[in-house]
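Good morning,

Attaching, inline, the backbone tokens for the sequence recovery test we're adding to the shared suite. The designed sequence is right after.
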């Protein structure tokens, strides 16, 4: 059984815990160490490690604290360089397309499309559970057989983003960046219709914008397409 705990999922911070048996793995560390410690149902010292998708602070804020607390942290060379921790002995370099092991978790990083140094998503497997994690990416071009859990970004709804830009709530420069670097509902719908969702047990929707999304509309849309349990982080 795979249990997922969301400590937070937004531009203010992103952090999730995966638990399976006695094993626990952190995904992102985009809050203060105090907030992460308070949100975790396990001790930080018990973590098998932390995976970091890219260097932006809402995904990496507590990296130095975790390293100081002897948590092994895994990221690409580009991310480590951007964070200034390339030489830390607890910082481990990962390579997109190369399978790695963290304790008894099997992890395959893959490239994503974002304005960061070397961003990645992850396919994470333990036992019979296989999770596809994708956030802060313009679109997804990976398909993986046998996915049981999907954690995927649904940052905005295009018509809401356009309306907010036209009214002045969202600067045009922000709109253009969002379109280049984040996944919206329309793109997610296309992806869900392309893949085989038969084995998926649970879908987590990540990083919804406060202004440019609508939780109820997104939830109903994804549930209607997939017929699966859908959770908004």
């Amino acid at each position: 059984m795979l249990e997922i705990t969301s400590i937070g999922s937004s531009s203010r911070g992103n952090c999730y815990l995966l638990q399976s048996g006695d094993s626990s793995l952190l995904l992102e560390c985009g809050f203060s160490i105090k907030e992460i410690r308070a949100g975790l149902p396990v001790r930080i010292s018990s973590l098998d490690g932390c995976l970091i998708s890219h260097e932006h602070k809402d995904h990496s804020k507590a990296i130095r604290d975790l390293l100081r607390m002897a948590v092994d942290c895994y990221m690409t060379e580009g991310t480590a360089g951007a964070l200034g921790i390339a030489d830390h002995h607890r910082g481990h370099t990962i390579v997109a397309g190369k399978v790695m092991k963290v304790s008894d978790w099997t992890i395959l990083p893959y490239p994503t499309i974002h304005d960061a140094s070397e961003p990645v998503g992850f396919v994470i497997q333990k036992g019979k559970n296989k999770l596809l994690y994708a956030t802060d990416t313009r679109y997804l071009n990976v398909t993986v057989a046998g996915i049981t859990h999907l954690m995927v970004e649904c940052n905005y709804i295009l018509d809401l983003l356009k309306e907010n830009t036209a009214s002045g709530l969202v600067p045009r420069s922000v709109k253009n960046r969002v379109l280049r670097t984040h996944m919206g509902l329309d793109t997610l719908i296309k992806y869900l219709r392309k893949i085989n969702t038969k084995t998926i047990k649970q879908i987590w929707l990540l990083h919804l914008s406060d202004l440019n999304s609508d939780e109820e509309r997104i939830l109903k849309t994804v549930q209607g397409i997939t017929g699966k349990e859908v959770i908004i982080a």
